[in-house]
Amino acid sequence: MASVNPINYGTPRRESDTQVMLEIDGRSVTVPEGTSVMRAAIESGIDVPKLCASDNVEPFGSCRLCLVEIEGKRGYPASCTTEVAEGMEVRTVSDKLNQLRRGVIELYLSDHPGASKVETGDVGDDELLRLARDLDVREVRYDKDGRNHQDAVIDDSNPYFDFDSSRCIVCSRCVRACDEVQGTFALTVDGRGFASMISAGTDSDDFLNSECVSCGACVQACPTEALVEKNVIEQGMPERSVTTTCAYCGVGCSFNAELKGDEVVRMVPAKEGKANHGHSCVKGRFAWGYTNHPDRITKPMVRDKITDPWREVSWDEAMSFAVERINGIRDKHGSTALGAITSSRCTNEETYLVQKMARAVFGTNNVDTCARVCHSPTGYGLNSTFGTSAGTQDFDSVEKSDVILVIGANPTDAHPVFASQMKKRLREGARLIVVDPRAIDLVRSPHVAAEHHLQLQPGTNVALVNALAHTVLAEGLENRAFVEQRCDVEEYDAWREFILREENSPEHTAQYTGVPADALREAARLYATGGNAAIYYGLGVTEHSQGSTMVMGMANIAMATGNIGRPGVGVNPLRGQNNVQGSCDMGSFPHELPGYRHISDQGVRDIYEAEWGVKLDDEPGLRIPNMIDAATGGTFKALYVQGEDILQSDPNIKHIAAGLAAMECVIIQDIFLNETASYAHVFLPGSTFLEKDGTFTNAERRINRVRKIRTAPGGYADWEVTQMLAQALGYPMNYGHPSEIMDEIARTTPTFRGVSFDKIDALGSVQWPCNDEHPEGTPVMHVDNFVRGKGKFMLTPFVPTDERANRRFPLLLTTGRILSQYNVGAQTRRTANRLWHAEDWLELHPSDAEVRGIKDGTLVAVASRMGETTLRAKVSERMTPGVVYTTFHFPETAANVITTEYSDWATECPEYKVTAVEVRPCNTLSEWQRRYMDTRDQMQRIEGNQSVRAPDTVAASVEEASDDDWEPAE
Amino acid sequence: MDDEKMVRQANQIAQYFSAYPEDRAKEGVRGHIRKFWEPRMRTQLINYAGAGGEGLHPLVLWAATQLQDEAGQPV
Question: Which InterPro entries match (chain B) (predicted)?
């Protein structure tokens, strides 16, 4: 069990080769040079009173409570701002210090509403009251009727926390947390002297309408409960905590779930978390209310036809129904008519079981995962060049980077906690290059600015990376020694000859990319010569018809410049979902067994055939889009989907719907009746991350524990449901606990050989490869050798996508995410995060808007060659002219009605980032949306229930709001 | 999948590997399809190539022939 109140050491840890010995209260203490006296004392077990000090922000020295006496020094220096010195003699306790501290406490209490609680001992999370209790300050001699702040109005605008300035002591911990930890600089101390108060932006701003991103760092930092979670106000202080892992993005933050009984009161990011170091974002810290949402489906359901209402049944009946259908289809059409989709939101152990179910029980390799539509090109590209399908670094590596190249990623929205770490390094002086069609926040935000923003045209990544490489080679900036020592030189020479062709020069590629040659050359020089250079990339790289080529292109320039194999460098995919790395590792792809080993390898099949007791098919199976195609073609009949919603997330929804409708048995295992479930015959209630044991693997290959807090309302964790189905199908699957599944993974997968729940519990987390060679894991890969031996340069010809703008569709649409919503929105739409983003909107440049008569809030139709949808416009100079942008968080918008089936040549990852469209003002929903609204309730109704869905955004807002009264929420 | 989509996807593979010298390009296309395409898809390609292979890149046509030989299927 984690501590509810972990030790706060007051000031950050310092690193130094020089150790300093001093004496504190007669005790000999040794710490690194640069450490504060406060930290040295607390590390040696001596408590020092403090209010303004916290070990995640730099010392400030304002509260005057941490005073100490130092032999030979005059006065009473603050221990937080005083560094240790050799031979220093410190006293933290004396009558005089006690007198001074009591005086300060009394002054604070004179303008604080909780003084009476000191007597009762009910001090909650208020460090001031705790200190008053500990220092026995029971009386306040000052006149309570004098000037004070006790009538201050509480700012309760934020849905998750309140700010009560009557409790505030203006210690600036919140301001410094916002600045130093989150890097948003939203808070400030407004006014002077008595009028000083914490302010979120301008006088007219409250927290909700300010620049605040609701990461909660200020709430966590506040020592007096002036900033406090609404849940704590309503439920009281938590009593215990359990350390677990966030179920949102691929950063994989560790959290202490703080509980009262079995109810979560709050999620507090764990200081020991090696991915997040005590920080969080609005989703992880606050947006977990979906776990208790009334939309949760808690009973199994079945129906004969998708036009029938759902019928709630027992687990036994649901399993019998599923088994009868699966066996019937297999008898008639064979195993190749069956398939499964694993979930990147579920644990490694659950994902492993679903692919095992497909291969060992269904008897087919038709298994795939959502990485198909996001980072499958990462797998292909990094495997081809480096030899393995994963990012090269740990997140902390960025602290050693001198140059950061962000390509096709928007970390402040999609990976916010890592973005804060990156911004901290940028504030320290690292230089930034951003490659993106949009001016993402990193391009210019407080105290961070990109030195180069290469605002390229969508679909031209490969032309751009080739031009970067061309500049490096043509100007002699490559690291020839690294190449000769670490890489296949023959492949390098072929690549060099290819890249130096005129077609790859910045001057030539500018016609495609729109990036001026001079700007591109400057950026290339900085990347090659600026010191440790690291690449971070996202779906703006992978979701293209040349996604895999681009990944190889980035790997090439990293190798050519020697930016691989040490901290501060590397090629790093920012993974989308919490366990998308893990789902790929666990053998979710139809051509690979766990550990990225091809299904045609007899030796690997031997391992699993012995372990599972079955003969395995040696042919690659169908990918998700292939399954849909085969379904419409009549040869694919049954699909078991765990925790994915392909009808919302995958491209060309109409085709997905047709494929699902053609199947005879669709089994959905989920926490909500999702969009795909409209086409399902069996629904099995799933479990959230709070309701299971297991592990998630984040974008840095870090395997973190997920710990069960309560039982799922349906009664079973997802791994238990899969096991139940396997048993019902006659397969002996009999795990007693997920740790036994991980033991099997370790037994059969070389890169996981050293992984076990016991080891993760002991170390906190572990990064694969974890084996005999690296028993405690591998933070940085390819240190001495690439996994494949010699690094392999791959040719990267630029092939323009077939999706082209023309007179009829003159704009290019890209899709992406926003901070407050997550993926298909199934979780975040069911939280108060809707306050920030209640619908998808279309961003477009003012010039594109003006010529079409569009202004902020105008309802617009977006039409592509595939379809049309209606949403509201947001005019934004973040866009480049000719490019428009939307998110895909809301099923009512159905952004994927517009997207095409064009896909990456190597992996079939869809080209979400390039769709030619036209935009026009309109005043009605699209035909598809109207039909969807009409049929959704029909397809999701449950016998005895009116509806499980609330009416939603766009449809409702069309009825209720005029164009004039609409304001886009930021 | 429909033939048009299959032809486009196969040709995309060929477009990538055509950056390499011919022998390596041929093997690249054949190997990629063999490694990643499910048997039904390969059969569809083989049959389509056997029926004339309209629109297929020459590297794909060559690969289809090789895949047919490996599978022992009539074109």
Answer: Formate_DH_dsu
